[in-house]
């Protein structure tokens, strides 16, 4: 546990997500760090954009983790290293794993999302929460280290799944390991441009990543993945990068949620049901929905910081307008990456170097 003050700060931030680190930084810079308190289960918050680089061996643990305790200490913000397990928005209290009830005037939730596995499946290795994936990766290392040929399946054909598949291929390049990308779409990264889909398929073929498209996984048991249409695939281990879900405890809070359990917010990032609750990042369900991607959480940070201050002062809130086009950078192997925006795509070593600069600049802001 971090420092506690007798009178808790008026604003409680749940989760050290991409939006909240910016809120902590800005409040600190303005000398208002004492007005907020951050709760997160680990002092190290991972930056997902650099996870593929960590898997492939390009980055170390510290390169892609923000030290929340240090960030908070710099701005005079108390930090509690624990999980939130519930919210009572009518009593304005957060329930902590420690059993404590934490009061707030304003609450902001940026706790990310979790993989939603097909019902009943418990096996395999989930990429989320990323914070603990680094531990689960060592399980894979141990499996791969014994020298027998293995087949790994990465489930999920989104950007995360593709990047993880390429990164694992690079990490285990000295081992006899076959990697398969599995998912229900006909092609990888179905939500990106046609050109990007082609480039990804081409790169996969070039380095020998197998593709099991239109394979809607309904079961994983005794080393066999089963698709809805009955196809079966024998694998030694699976890595789940499937689409995002919300923690189930949110359903007991009385907060307005969307059908998938994410907190519904208005265009000021404020809960539609409780005016003293804000949400940002993956956990927020926007009036004009966007995919669950860190780029939105990052963009929401400054506006969230502004609106928390305005709300405390009783001023009118600013409006968040999510961008219609956003840059997606997909790391491949051998120091190359794909850039995708406006339906266009380009691949090369310079794209990977550009991505490195963007990611490093982001991390630098919180060091
Ligand atoms: C491999 C991979 C690569 C990706 N690459 C990209 C990319 O290149 N670009 C992109 O835009 N998106 C990318 N994404 C998506 C991106 O990870 C998420 O959209 C982004 O992390 C969401 O940020 P967030 O602020 O909502 O939450 P997160 O960054 O997930 O942070 C949530 C925080 O809340 C904490 N927390 C969770 N539960 C609780 C609780 N109960 N109480 C207190 N604290 C809690 C967590 O410990 C964590 O610190 C990638 C995802 C993966 C898996």
Largest sheet: 5 strands, parallel
Number of strands: 25
| CATH class designation of the largest domain | Alpha Beta
CATH topology of the largest domain: FAD/NAD(P)-binding domain
Could you say which overall geometry the principal axes of the C-alpha atoms support?
globular
User: What's the total helix number?
Assistant: 8
Count of domain modules: 2
Please state the CA-atom Rg, rounded to the nearest Å: 21 Å
Question: Structural class, judged by helices and strands?
Answer: alpha/beta
Given as residue ranges, the uncertain stretches (5+ residues, pLDDT < 50) are 1-5
The set of bound ligands, ions and cofactors reads: flavin-adenine dinucleotide
Q: Could you tell me the strand content as a percent range?
A: 25-35%
Name the strands of the widest sheet in spatial order. Answer: 5-2-1-9-21
What proportion of the residues is helical, as a percent range? 25-40%
User: Can you name the CATH architecture of the largest domain?
Assistant: 3-Layer(bba) Sandwich
Return the average pLDDT rounded to an integer: 94
In CATH, the homologous superfamily of the largest domain goes by the name: FAD/NAD(P)-binding domain
């Amino acid at each position: 546990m971090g420092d506690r003050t007798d009178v808790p700060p008026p604003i409680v931030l749940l989760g050290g997500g991409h939006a909240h680190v910016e809120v902590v930084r800005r409040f600190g810079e303005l000398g208002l760090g004492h007005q907020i308190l951050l709760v997160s289960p680990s002092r190290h918050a991972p930056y997902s954009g650099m996870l593929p680089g960590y898997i492939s061996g390009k980055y170390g643990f510290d390169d892609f983790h923000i030290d929340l305790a240090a960030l908070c200490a710099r701005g005079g913000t108390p930090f509690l290293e624990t999980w939130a397990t519930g919210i009572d928005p009518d009593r304005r209290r957060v329930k902590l794993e420690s059993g404590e009830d934490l009061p707030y005037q304003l609450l902001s939730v940026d706790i990310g999302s979790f993989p939603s596995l097909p019902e009943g499946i418990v096996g395999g290795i989930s990429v989320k929460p990323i914070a603990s994936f680094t531990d689960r990766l060592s399980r894979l290392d141990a499996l791969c280290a014994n020298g027998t040929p293995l087949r790994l399946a990465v489930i999920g054909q989104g950007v995360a799944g593709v990047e993880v598949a390429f990164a694992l291929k690079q990490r285990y390049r000295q081992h006899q390991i076959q990697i398969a990308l599995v998912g229900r779409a006909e092609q990888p990264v179905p939500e990106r441009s046609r050109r990007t889909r082609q480039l990804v398929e081409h790169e996969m073929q070039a380095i020998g990543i197998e593709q099991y498209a239109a394979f809607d996984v309904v079961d994983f048991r005794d080393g066999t993945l089963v698709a809805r249409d009955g196809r079966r695939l024998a694998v030694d281990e699976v890595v789940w990068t499937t689409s995002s879900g919300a923690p189930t405890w949110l359903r007991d809070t009385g907060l307005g949620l969307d059908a998938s359990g994410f907190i519904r917010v208005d265009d000021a990032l404020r809960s539609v049901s409780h005016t003293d609750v804000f949400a940002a990042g993956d956990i927020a369900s926007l009036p004009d929905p966007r995919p669950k991607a860190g780029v939105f959480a990052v963009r929401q940070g400054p506006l969230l910081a502004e609106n928390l201050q305005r709300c405390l002062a009783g001023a009118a809130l600013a409006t968040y307008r999510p961008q219609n086009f956003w840059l997606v950078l997909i790391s491949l192997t051998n120091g190359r990456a794909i850039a995708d925006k406006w339906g266009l795509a380009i691949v090369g070593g310079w794209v990977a170097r550009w991505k490195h600069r963007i990611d490093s600049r982001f991390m630098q802001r919180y060091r």
